[in-house]
Amino acid sequence: MASTQQLLRNLDWNLLYTYVVIVDEGSITAAARRLHLSQPSISNALKRLEAHLGIRLIERKKGSFALTYQGQQLYEECAAACRILERLLGRFADTQELQGELRIQVASHAHCPPLDATLGLFHQRYPQVSFDIKAVPSVEILAQVAAGQADIGIGTVQKPHGSLAFALLGHEQMGLYCGRAHPLYGRHDLTPADLRGLDYVAFESEQPKEGLQSVARLRAELDISGYLVAVSPNEEEVLRLIRAGVGYGALTLDTAKPLLASGELWQLPPYRDLPTIDVHLITSTQNPLSPAAQAFVSLLQEQAQQHLRQRYFCQGEAGLRSEQDGGAAC
Q1: Can you give the residue ranges of the HTH lysR-type domain (predicted)?
Q2: How many CB atoms lie within 10 A of CB 224?
Q3: Each residue of 139-179: pLDDT tens digit?
């Protein structure tokens, strides 16, 4: 009995919860993604739990994943305990208010509709949580999140990093634009060759292995390099320089759309097969997220999935319903 009481007193509940997630997800890799932790962290948690209990829980061989008899028994009991705790927490949810501050860093050129939607919804649900949001180059976001100086990053750089986790939030396209004072403004007969040798305004990350490397690749493939007249990490400043006629440059389609409509910008070739940028959610696998940050990340991922479904699949589904039962479009 003394040994059992000592085990209960010393056993970390996080190990049991991690074990349930491993079994639910069917692999250590999938469990790491769900918990926003590294695979070694999940593997170590499983080893520690097996050491505490003195039994083998999962038979792990290359290409196979199977619970032992004791592992199955433990999973059933722990899963039942999780359900009990979820019901208890659900009863107290209305009386517990999330508080604190969320430190979010966003690449200035990263347009992310799911983030915009999440900020509004999250504030409605948890008005006691404040935001500290900064526009930071993607490379710096990686360093800040890894160092624990930011809770959440939204950037366009995905580099292998043992203490960072990445989740795709969406995509954005970029085109080339000039302002009213530029000599190419208003011309409809342009080809990429017309851009050769002209002054260019660039983001700092328009270089190999950085967030906007696809823009640099496009200019290299089209052989339209010119004098790099200005560089900035901030979209507002790049836009300011383009509108002032200092040079032409790349902007997201979302940024340029209203300015094209008002005549402040003019789009330059190419007009098809534009560079596509991936926007990522960046979190730490070493620094645990606060309850507020966990709630924000969960809501952001839900909004991202919904946005992707609506943008890329809704039209086809609507068409199918319309053909089969006269359903309305999404």
Answers
A1: 11-68
A2: 22
A3: 889 999 998 889 999 988 777 777 899 998 988 899 999 99
User: Which H or E run includes 22?
Assistant: helix 13-25
| CA separation for the pair 63, 26 (Å, rounded) | 12
Entry field: residues in the chain? 330
- Return d(Cα 9, Cα 148) in angstroms, integer: 31
Structure tokens at 303: 């909004």
**Residue with token string 């991922």:** 301
Neighbours of 83 (CB within 10 A): 10
Give the residue from 88, 65, 63, 67 showing the smallest Cα distance to 76.
Answer: 67
Distance CA 125, CA 205 (A): 36
132: nearest Cα among 102, 156, 159, 95: 102
Question: Which residues neighbour 265 within 8 Å (Cβ) at sequence distance 6 or greater?
Answer: 177, 178, 179, 242, 243, 251, 256, 259
Read off the tokens for 280.
Answer: 């990522």
**285: helix, strand or coil:** coil
What is the distance in angstroms between the CA of the first residue and the CA of the last residue of the chain?
A: 62
Roughly what angle, to the nearest 10 degrees, separates helices 28-35 and 39-53? 110
206 CA to centre of own chain = 20
Q: How far apart are CA 185 and CA 267, in angstroms?
A: 8
**Cα angle 86-90-94, degrees, rounded to a multiple of 5:** 155
| pTM for the predicted model, two decimal places | 0.61
**CA dist 3 to 8, 18, 23, Å?**
9, 23, 27
